[in-house]
Amino acid sequence: MRPLRIGFVPEHFSTPLHFAQKYFSLSADLIPFPSGTGHMITSLRAGELDIAIGLTEGWIAALASPPPSNTTNNFKLVGTYVESPLCWAISTGISRHDVTSIEDLKGKVMGVSRIGSGSHIMGSVLAAREGWLWPGEKAFGVKPLQTFERLRQAVNDEEADFFMWEYFTSKRYYNPAASPYPIKKVGEIYTPWSSWKIVARDEFVGSSDLEEVLEKVNKGIRYFGENGEEAVRYISQELDYEEEDAREWMKGVRFAEDVKGVKRGVVERTVDALKKAGVVGERGKGVEECVGIWRED
Predict the structure, then answer these.
(1) What digits encode the pLDDT tens for the residues 70-82?
(2) Which of 235, 103, 88 is nearest to 163 (CA)?
(3) Are strands 196-201 and 51-55 parallel, antiparallel or unpaired?
(4) Residue 200 confidence (pLDDT) above 70
């Protein structure tokens, strides 16, 4: 039998997953998706992944909405990876004098990794917060650009005007000397929900294989919490972060003590917020159809 295929975003949040494989014999192919949750959704629907760890808003927007033609939503929420919210930094090119604050963003072109990604969905959440959603009117143009590097390049080349990405991943490029493609921050927005969830394709929900993966991720999280210096070294040496930023991020992040299951209240609040932002239609699927394993609120 082939190893399970687990998709993940190769950023600082993936450190416990690395520890689970290195120290606790997580037997799986860990497949990086630097372009994020939207790409993993496509791969899950295509049967190219079995399990994935990604952003709450991306999974729920996909599961609560009709899938594209000739595809199905063949996966469910099965776990909670990170309990703390995510800070999305809003950035533009380092020398862009036409974009200096959130007020300048309306009507501009927003760079996103993919349609349906967190970087796309959170733009709608931002527009809803700012009161920019009106019937028949789009708050922003949208330009898919795949990767974080292409997003930085696009806002410097004026191919896009701004983009949204996790704060600490963006932070090292808020320096005119950063290479390639330095950027500047013009604002931020926090998710009003816990930030990272685990999904699995339907045939793995309730399986012993999934149970084993979840338990080994738990062990990786516990190891992360008990070995902070090793985590800082890994994040700063193997991933794209400064050591001081890794330490600062670790002060605020809160991984789940037990990743198994998803709270009903979190899913309901997220669906409600995504409906208000126009990401999920009013007739979108109910929460029961989004979740494979529940946990108590």
Answers:
(1) 888 899 999 999 9
(2) 88
(3) antiparallel
(4) yes
Cα separation of 193 and 59, whole Å? 13
Question: By CB neighbour count within 10 A (0-12 exposed, 13-18 middle, 19+ buried), where does 25 fall?
Answer: exposed
Which tokens hold the place of 113?
């990794």
Of 147, 169, 153, 143, nearest in space to 94 by CA: 153
**Cβ neighbourhood burial of 250 (10 Å; 0-12, 13-18, 19+):** middle
- Give the integer Cα–Cα distance in Å for 132 and 141: 13
In this prediction, residue 1 carries a pLDDT of: 66
Q: What is d(CA 212, CA 109) in angstroms, rounded to the nearest whole number?
A: 44
DSSP designation for 143: E
Torsion angle in degrees (nearest 10) through CA of 173, 235, 14, 30: 110
Residue among 235, 95, 141, 49 nearest 59 (CA): 49
Q: Mind listing the pLDDT tens digit for each residue in 137-185?
A: 788 999 999 899 999 999 999 999 999 999 999 999 999 988 899 999 9
As a whole number of angstroms, the distance between CA 29 and CA 38 comes to: 19
Using one digit for the tens of pLDDT, what is the confidence trace for 57-71? 999 999 988 888 888
pLDDT value, residue 246: 96
Tokens of 238: 């193997």
Which three-class secondary structure state does DSSP give residue 147?
Answer: coil
Q: What sign for the dihedral angle of Cα 164, 158, 127, 76?
A: negative
What ranges make up the beta strands (E) of 45-108?
51-55, 75-82, 87-93
